[in-house]
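Priority: low. Protein: Major facilitator superfamily (MFS) profile domain-containing protein. Input follows.
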Amino acid sequence: MAYDAENNVEHKDATPRSGSADHHEKEEAPMVEALDDDPVYSYKEQRKIIGRVDRRLITVAGIIYMNSLMDRSNLPNAGIAGMNVDLGMVTGFRYSAVALVFFITYTFLQPPATILTRKIGPRPFLSGICFAWGVVMVGFGFVQDWVVLIPLRLLLGLFEAGYFPGIVYLISTWYSRYDMHKRYAGFYCLGLVASGLGGILAFGVQQMDGLGGLEGWRWIFIIFGLMTVAASFLGMIFLVDFPDVAIDKNHWKFISRDEIAFIMRRIAKDRNDASSEKFNFRRWAAAGKDWKLWVFAMQFFSLTTQAYALAFFLPIILNTNMGFSVALSQLLTAPPYAGAGIVMFLCAWVGDRYHMRAPLLLFTASLGLIGLPLLAYAEAVGARYFGCFLICAASNGGIPTVMAYQANNIRGQWKRAFASATLVGFGGLGGIAGSTVFRSQDAPQYIPGIWVCIGLNILIVCTTVMNTIIFRKQNAKADRGEVVLEGEASFRYTI
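Result:
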């Protein structure tokens, strides 16, 4: 059997092997359980196996995340559809306060989420919390006082807190390092579709105004909540378990035990952390000593701050800054997200194909540094709207890149769990910052918020350059045998 390092796949040898093949596999991947009659798959067969995992894991995970993003970010659509006036949220900081409180519970309850995902299991835990926040979202449609929105948003944050870190951790256990970027992009792109189409869907649902004696903005919450409840049942049926757990279960029909063993053997060859490690709180918490995790988290914070600022305020900016009608403002939120999806997949393909991450972050940050001044200072409405395209591509296009950048440069199951929680936790902080970046008193130009976003893109550039310099030096030392990176002699940092 030959091994293709570039694509991280096995190929059948032209000459059949003797019975010693199984022994050879044990030596190459000691962390993977040996199986009787362990098959060796052709390249085509291997891609089919991985494709089945993609359809089962990435598609379902993305659909649930799509509902998650729509539920947390449909506030501006409901706001301009009449909620702000009906509930008296047009004065002071009421709207910003309601948007912000979600991230209090969302941020601080994320660290234990990866542990619970592992202990309870992805299917019952992630699907269960999805059902819970769907029910909460339906409750938004019956609020009579804006103050009631605050505890509901806190509950929404509590239940949604477990999903993103849990699913990011789960995905990282099924794929090798240079398959991850495309998978994160595919998963996140479905959420991006939600951000783009949420406004169009909200506009359609708003036409139910008066049905059942309820205003159109109330139906936005009710319909979106019912969609989330339906997605939770989809997750309960189709979400997969961790590969080292799934291999011991007999009820998986879409993939065999031997095929899961191939997945684990593949990961073991790539980074040698396919098997589970016994949970140890000290070992889990000790991952926090690694400076890299905090740099990646800060980059993620910088990107999510901008992404959430757009999610919460783009319809409002289109309405107040560019003068579009309420209906047109909702509809025009879609094209920038479609453009961001193209940039995201382009980055994912290039990143996995050429095993690079940092140059792509520099590219997306540069888009933001061009788009933000256009939004702030361009006189033509078309130029300002084009600036929204670039800002959206910069923030949303960079998010899967940072997720893959981090996942490629760490090892170990529980370190991966800690890192996922840290990354997404800082994403929650980005949500808090993003909900306050474009203040009502700064309308319609929002100059202070735009300069905050410019500074965040500069921070991404600086930290990426710093990482590149340090990683290159560490890789060179590892090549000379002076250091062992991440506890594995063959491991090298991805630049």
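The chain has a mean pLDDT of 84. The first helix runs from residue 21 to 28.
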